[in-house]
Amino acid sequence: MGIYKRLSISQKQIVWAWGLLAIPIVFYVVVRFYPTANAILLSFQEWNLLGSRNWTGFDNYVKLFSDPTFWKVFGNTFLYLILGTPSSLLLAFVIAFHLDKLRFMHGTIRALYFLPFMTSAVAMAWVWRWFYQPVPIGVFNNTLATFGIPQIPFLNSTTFALPSILAPAIWAGLGFQVIIFMAGLRAIPQTYYEAARIDGISAWETLTEITIPLLKPTIVFLVVFSSIGFLRIFDQVFNMTTNDPGGPLNSTKPLVLMIYDTAFNSFDMGYAAAQTVVLFTVLLVVSLLQLRVMRDK
Amino acid sequence: MAFSDTLDTSKKASALRNSARRKRSQAQFIRWLLLFAGGIAMIMPIVFMLSTSFKYPFEVYNLNLIPEEPTIENYTYVLEDGRFFGWFTNSLLIATITTICNVLFDSLVGYVLCKYTFPGRYIIFIAILSTLMIPTEMLVIPWYLMSSAFGWLDTYWGIMFPGLMTAFGTFLMKQFFETVPDDFLEAARIDGLNELQIWWTVAMPLVRPALAALAIFVFLGNWTAFIWPLIVTNSQEMYTLPVGLTTFSVEAQVEWELIMTGAAISTIPTLIVFLVFQRYIIRGVVMAGLKG
């Protein structure tokens, strides 16, 4: 205590800062940095949890890149991204753009769109799974049948299953995107629109020349945020295909499900770790690429 | 003559204005109608889930939203099973403790990084921020190994420890502490408060909206978390609600009214929270989204 009292104010600050940060630093080192290093290390080893960890160099990666299932899964993961991000953003923008111009029951309608965001992905995966069942169980096929339209084998077909699983993911995230878009729209000064009106600029041009360029930071944020979400899709796939995880014929299996299978069903820890490193790299590259492209535009 | 002329043109003008206004209000009405219909469509899965949870099996395949013979039998069946009660308490406990930890630690770290000058500040900030880029899925295998080495598998601590602090929360709080004037803290220091007291009694009350936003995000995230609880728990007593719901639904197979009841039980609490705190939640989401 005597030593502490003799310190200058700025020295005291240093003591306090490091003292308060001690526990968090231990946490970040033990629960974030060490596991990251361990995952990377493990990806160069072979281990089934029981024996010893053996170094195998790049074997796991070689095995992975020559595994046709991996490429199928890799393709699926990008399909989730490529279908999910643009469609959800476009939908969210259209809704936000019009909802922003609405006064009557604005709050109620906004709440309707936002409500799905508050649900749990697992619970909603089961609700949607029920919707997708064939006649006479599923809501969608029952509705199609009433109008005499042929049945769609949603979750049982290799073509329809992936979009069918994607739909609840888009649905649940839409409200969040609408809210963020509306906040972005509100932040655009009204004077721009008044100037545009005086200059007699058409509504379409106002949208493409004023609204969208000024909304760019919001768009960049949402593109990166939702892309990461779609690339990491798991809960919906796992729960909607419990009888054949990632099926039919691996047509819905994303990278995270492959990682889960490899690690916790086959206990091939090194191979699974290599897959997580690939996932990490993909996420990093995709977000950096998007940030770069969107900034340049 | 001249007078009636101007009257005539002004009449025409006002008629024109009226028709323009009518057109605009028509467009506005169509806009409202479409958005409202879309909003109703958005909540249909939730409505169907709730309505089916009050139906007898024979009525499940009817698409009517209001059950002809409403029953709470599904709920009594699911609750008598007993497991749901345990899963519900587990989820509630885990989400609550994790939320408290995040609110305390993330704001403390954010505060220190924002308001203190000390060597290494920038490096620590960047180090914490960089963990945002590491996906949970990359860490679950090392976390699992760690948990099995320390005997944390199948325990509350095992489920909770990875989420006790988040870089997102730290960054969010740091942004908000920027808005707290340094003079306030200086004044408190002169009044003889120690640093912890200054953080807790002076700075924290000033960022309450941000704390609320953080709490909502962390709670919702932990309430719905799936992959890590799925991996770290073995016994059904330790399951969280989402993991339990998966197990329960796989068992129930084609008894959709029971599955919908389970889904409703895990969804209703967050829906109620939303309906009560709607305004704060939406404001919090915007804050977290734009600043975080």
TrEMBL record, chain A:
UniProt KW keywords: Cell membrane, Membrane, Sugar transport, Transmembrane, Transmembrane helix, Transport
Its membrane topology: Multi-pass membrane protein
Main subcellular localisation: membrane
UniProt-listed InterPro entries: ABC_transporter_permease (IPR051393), MetI-like (IPR000515), MetI-like_sf (IPR035906)
Residue ranges of every copy of the ABC transmembrane type-1 domain listed in the record: 74-290
Signal peptide (from-to): none
Transmembrane segments: 14-34, 78-99, 111-131, 165-188, 214-234, 271-291
Subcellular locations according to the entry: Cell membrane
Protein family per UniProt: Belongs to the binding-protein-dependent transport system permease family.
PANTHER family with a match to the protein in the record: ABC TRANSPORTER PERMEASE PROTEIN, INNER MEMBRANE ABC TRANSPORTER PERMEASE PROTEIN YCJO
Protein name: Multiple sugar transport system permease protein
Organism: Pseudovibrio ascidiaceicola
